[in-house]
Amino acid sequence: MSKSHDHPENLPQALRAEALETLLIEKGLLVASAVDAVITRYSERVGPMNGARIVARAWVDPEFRQWLLEDGTAAIDQFDLEGGQVEKLVVVANSAQIHNVVVCTLCSCYPWAILGLPPTWYKDPAYRSRIVREPRTVLHEMGLELESGMQIRVWDSSAEVRYMVLPEQPLDSAGMTEAELAERVSRDAMIGVVR
Amino acid sequence: MDGIHDLGGKHGHGEVDYEAPGTVFHARWEATVFAMVNAGARAGAWNNFDRFRHAVERIDPVAYLVHGYYGRWLGGLETLLVEAGLITTAEIEQRLARVSQPRPSGHNERVAARPKARPDPMGPPPQMAGSQRGMANPPKFKVGDRVATATEVLGGHTRLPAYARGKAGVIAAVHGGWVYPDDNAHGRGENPCYLYTVTFDGVELWPGGDPLMTVSLDLFEPYLNHVAWPANDAQDAQELK
Prior knowledge:
The complex is a heterodimer of chains A (195) and B (241). By secondary structure, chain A is α/β, with parallel strands linked by helices.
């Protein structure tokens, strides 16, 4: 269902966006530079590198980890995040027995300030329809093999609470610094489609 | 509303079209839509996210599935701009014809916006930042309570997905008072109520569901009622509490 592989500038919605953009500029409701400001903000300042810093801190600091799991909203205050959509954060931890995965079946709610803007597949009908019904199959198709006894906890973000998965620290990363660990944390692990 | 947006559990959408991290916007027009949605709020076309989400739910259902995330946003924004009287459908159509001229025909046959003849009242702008609100009354449910979700289907905005209607789950967290989207989207005021995380077993939600999965949803108090534990689960319930 995704159109991401088509020529994105020739889609009907691209033409409609152009039409509306010129109308809103003429009416004085939009300044053209606002588009560049959006691109800069969500390409450079707001993205999964912010969530990665939080995860890395939790891996090196057990007290922070506990605080993060008990009151994610308060624990991330010190990270000085921008980008919106995180009025309340709940962080859910993976373990050897439990795998967590996040979705929004009704729209595409996502913790922008922590992970940036969501990937296209997160917003598409296939992921939204299936991950709440057959998560093991969907994760398998996405390349994640879970052990047969693994419990799966799906978090469907149906209100303003936002969710982030705290992945397990990779075994081969012992002794790394917090900054090195942050480089090891992927966006997809914080959504829960990889471990 | 039982709209096309309510996708949880629907069959037939195929495999996830996965893309590795890297690209935030796939084309400039996507960022343009993002900026225009912000501009629409400043211009008074919408004043809360519930209203915006409901406008997206109301677009042409075919466009909803094929135009992608920013295409959906664009359809919702066009609807809100028309309903707020800031722009007319004719203006959009005429401008679209002009920008489309050199391109092959048939590209703009489906406009996603579907403005209402009689729009909802906008309602007052939010008096406080965010959506959390203090509550005078205590919460009706506590962690460990067993609850059943509402079964009725209403026409407007709601955050109770169809797949979780008429199902029994357990209160896993109490999140305090939050603006009630079902009223706020329609200009009927914030009417804050308690929000709970409710956890459902996979086997409760789906026929032949995965016995090792749960789905947790954040649900507002008006969606929920107390329900007794089945006899064989009563012991588990005591342990949970």
